[in-house]
Amino acid sequence: MSYKTILAVLDDPASARQISDFAALLSERFSAHIVGVHAETLAAVPLIAPMEIPDPAAVQVLQEAAQRETAEVERIFRERIEAQGLPSEWRSFVSANGYASGNVIESARAVDLIVASQGTPPEGGADNRADLEAFLFESGRPLLLVPRSIARPQPIRRVLIAWNGSREATRATFDALPFLKGAESVEIFCVDPPETSGQMPDMAGVELAATLARHGVNVTLRTENTGGIKASTAIENRLSGSSVDLLVMGGYGHARWWEVLFGGVTRAMIEKMTALTLLSR
């Protein structure tokens, strides 16, 4: 298994630079084809009271601004990708639904991996990621989320798998196999594993570790009983204490991803993320 088609989500000029560079590195590593995607969302039309008719001048200004951004994102993508001679193509879409539009989701469903930026924190202004939520969850493909703090691509040497035995965590783990097989070390991290009818808590992750080892993954297993500490806090502490390059975890639900991932892993953790994070659901 390898990543042969990578979709790079180029939301704005800032993320276009960051994600194009990451996509280029992955293309070189896996001999992958890059699909650069930008979804231009039709802005809400300002109305003129009392007739509540569209303001033509305002509409034109909004459309021209969106078109300039699309052109700049495309320029950045081509400059960073095509100049290196990497196999790639550019796709731009215009719709009222942005990244939630059917055409964008169809493009995403035909790739091996989606790469997107962590984006701008909501407190810094308007949250420009709302349309991406449906796109990422409806695509059915693994997502590699890149933190704002990582400006330049770096090798993935140490990987942490946040493991709770769920379908989503299972999907994420095996979607991440190309990264796991190339890493120097991979740790399966179990937080407060429950006792089930078929498994004792101290056996959590044992079978997964054996399976990954058969793939040639250098894997270890760690179980932590937190004594009431949130799973998100335990994972965050493990990330910072182990110099992890990549976190692998399952994604849950259709609400905002940073509020629903891995149960107790909340917006606070994603907003403070220090490592690349691969998500699947």
Detailed description of the structure:
The protein is an alpha/beta fold. It folds into two domains: 5-146, 3-Layer(aba) Sandwich (Rossmann fold); 158-280, HUPs (Rossmann fold), CATH 3.40.50.620. It is built from ten helices and twelve strands. It has helices spanning 13-30, 56-81, 102-108, 130-138, 167-175, 177-182, 206-214, 231-242, 257-260, 267-271, and strands at 5-9, 33-41, 47-48, 53-54, 88-95, 113-117, 143-146, 158-163, 185-191, 219-224, 246-250, 276-280. Helix 4 (130-138) links the parallel strand 6 and strand 7. Helix 1 packs parallel to helix 2.
Summarize the structure.
With 281 residues, the chain is of the alpha/beta class.
Could you give the topology of this structure?
Layout: E1 5-9, H1 13-30, E2 33-41, E3 47-48, E4 53-54, H2 56-81, E5 88-95, H3 102-108, E6 113-117, H4 130-138, E7 143-146, E8 158-163, H5 167-175, H6 177-182, E9 185-191, H7 206-214, E10 219-224, H8 231-242, E11 246-250, H9 257-260, H10 267-271, E12 276-280
Parallel strand pairs: 1-2, 1-6, 2-5, 6-7, 8-9, 8-11, 9-10, 11-12
Antiparallel strand pairs: 3-4, 7-12
Helix pairs in contact: 1-2
